[in-house]
Amino acid sequence: MERFEEGQGTAVLFSGGLDSAVLLALAARDGRPQPLYVSVGLAWEQQERAAAESLLRTEAFAQVLPCVTLHADMHDIYPATHWAMQGTAPGYDTADEDVYIEGRNIVLLAKASVFMARAALSRVLIGPLAGNPFPDATPAFFEAMAGALAMGLAKPISIEAPLARMHKADVIRLGAELGVPLELSLSCMQPVGGLHCGRCSKCRERIEGFRNAGVPDLTRYAAGQERL
After folding, report:
1. Residue 91 has what pLDDT?
2. Hey, how many other C-beta atoms are within 10 angstroms of the C-beta on 94?
């Protein structure tokens, strides 16, 4: 495990995606947050982690602590045929409900909280946006989960979702204001050689988000440029 510094206070669940990059930059305005990448074995993780490393080398994240990678292998839960294990995401116009990965936030927060207890971190930030339909992304869930984790670890744990009232366009505008090189982030369920596929629903959200934000989209897409 990577080395970490104790007592910094705030951890950020950081995937290298657009939302988590903006969340981490936001946290960095107030201190030196600890980014945590939790690997569970999804198909796109290698390219996602490469994007995270590229982001962390930029000036926007100069005050951020080195990223710590944690592992919680889910191959024994999600079968090899699961689209997220195969990297064959549903199509461009797929609804969010059809790309639900059961228990994802439960796993991420449970693993992160044990690390946090050992590292004297009491606050973790997570990045769901407005309109997120999943049951493990609600204020009630975060409150209940924080209470259970704090009780089980006998340590103070708070879970916060600072972007929960924002839509993708709002997050993109905020990222631009914070100087985040958004084109280096990776929000794609089937990236091709480090590029966004341009064909999955996450790419659709990204493309529409930049358009609605009025911010130039410098993202490189392997396909789907006609939709820009």
Report:
1. 73
2. 15
